[in-house]
Each structure stands twice: as C-alpha cells, then as structure tokens.
Amino acid sequence: MGTDDKIDAKSDQLKGKVKEGVGGATDDQELQSEGKVDQAKGHLKESVEKVKDAFKKD
Predict the structure, then answer these.
(1) What is the pLDDT of residues 16-43, one digit of tens each?
(2) Could you tell me which residues come within 8 angstroms of residue 28 by beta carbon, excluding any fewer than 6 positions away?
(3) At 8, which helix (H) or strand (E)?
(4) Model pTM?
C-alpha cells in the first residue's frame, strides 16, 4: 500500500471517529452519521489498497 494512500485512509478513519464522538457528545445525529460514513470510506480505501498490493506481489 502506498504511504500516501495509507495515510489518507487512516486520516478518513480518524476524522470519522472524531465526528462520531463529537456528534454523540452533542447529540447531533447528522454529525454521528457523517462520522460513520467517513470511517467506512477510510476502511474501503484501505481494503482497495490491500487488494492492489496483493496483485503487485504476483
């Protein structure tokens, strides 16, 4: 996985966790939902990069 792509994926995951936490603390359902979407986006990016890496090894 490329370093920039890995950082980008982890950044999305962290940003999502923060949004979800703040949304929970402030009872903002929309912000919580945005946080969950950001986390999912980060996990998806990470998965795509792992698949790319698997094909590069062959």
Answers:
(1) 999 999 999 999 999 999 999 999 999 9
(2) 22
(3) helix 3-26
(4) 0.84
Residue pair 31/23 in contact (Cβ under 8 Å)? The answer is yes
Rounded-to-integer distance, Cα 37 and Cα 17, Å: 10
Helix, strand, coil percent content, the chain, rounded in steps of 5: 90, 0, 10
Output 56 or 37, whichever has higher pLDDT.
Answer: 37
CA dihedral of residues 18, 37, 46, 51 (deg, nearest 10): 170
Contact 15, 9 (CB under 8 A): no
